[in-house]
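Pinned message: reference record for Malate dehydrogenase 1B isoform X2
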Amino acid sequence: MAKFVLAGKADCPYYAKAELLADVLQRNLPDFHIHKICVHPSDWEKWLEDACACNGWEHSRSPVVWRELTDRGGKGLLLGGFSDFLEHAQGYYGITSDMNSDLMLKISAENRQTKELCIEEEIHRHMSLRPLHIWISSLIPQLFSPGLFPGLPTFSLHLMDAGGSEEMLQGLKMETEDLALHQLHEVTVHSDQTQAFQEAHFIIFLDDLQPACESNDVQDDKDHMVSQVAERFRCYGQLIEANAQKDVRVIIAGDSFVNLKCSLLIENTPSVDPHNFMAMTTQLEYEAKTQLAQKLSVKTADITNVIVWGNISGSFHIDLQRAKVFRCDGAIWGPDGFSQQVMEMIYDWKWLQTDFMSLVHKHRTTISSKTNKATAISTTNGIMTILKAWNNDASPEDVFSLGVISTGQFGIPAGLVFSVPVSFRDGCWSVRSDVTVTDELRQKLNACADELKMERDIAARILKMHDRLQ
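Predicted structure (tokens):
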């Protein structure tokens, strides 16, 4: 079986003549097969240069004809140009071409017009596709459960190499492609951070900084970490401002300076609504629920409406004023949906005041020490919970804790990113107004605010110093 490929410029008369000859051969010879490649004139030289370099050919004009020794895509054996193809057809098959010059010019003009129409259709198809662009820094398990992005036809996943993890991200890219998801348009890995967040609709930031080196001075360690965070997330904010969609939504998760990272992003993206940024408290909230569930001998899912205030990765306070427990084995039982106040069911006040907070603070570190890796599963679950609530209508009764920009509610200084109780409705969050702040709670909130202001002041001082040195 003879398998040939014919390629040429769309407006080349000799490509048109070779094309007609190839059609005659294929129509009259059952074992002759031709594949035609029509290239736009503006792309021809580059296309031919690449084809010759790939196959080790020397050819400089249109058209070019080669024979494939395997199915299309295999190694090609160069035949030559139009004259070589005509000679081959006459010698092997006794068939020639008698197309006159006027017809050659007419067909070549039609070829160019058809090629340009095809290009326009392809551009229109790409523009109408409009996949949702999701950017993720560092590593994360797949986030493609149904319901996260309702009504979404396709999405493109962008994995950003933020700390020398490109090889691992390439592995994750391969695994994601193996999922064969119908909604997945493409997966790309980006190591050039100057091009980060192009067309981004959603951005998910994870921890991407190494822990500070051990030092005798804890404050030096903290200043060093704040310095890294400040410079990197100011840069990220500027890239979001320059490259991302103006309605981009951003989630910041992790174990270090989560509130500060969110604050730096907001400060450096003036054209994006600050309400589109949130620091994820959900993982910490669920860790608190786990300790309460174990104390009450119920499942973690049976604890609801736990509120976490303050600095997510620093000084925070766990508030149980609205917390409920379902299916608790106690003196009072009720139908499905019956709940009781957690504060009424836990009689060990000493445990609440001491051991409870200590257990929550150590919980993530304890898991990591046993698995020798970050708590990726619970991080992913927290992000999925927030995405579902943000992109769908959550129940107005559901209370979520999130680090969001303060406008002065509860006496929290305006402009701080502070974890507060919120609810979701119509794709937007709002701070709950039905939460009581006692004098004791206000003192704890003030302590959290002082720590966050100190982190922000350190970052501002470092960035100012950095700018003077430029």
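Pinned by admin. Summary line: The two ends are 68 Å apart (CA to CA).
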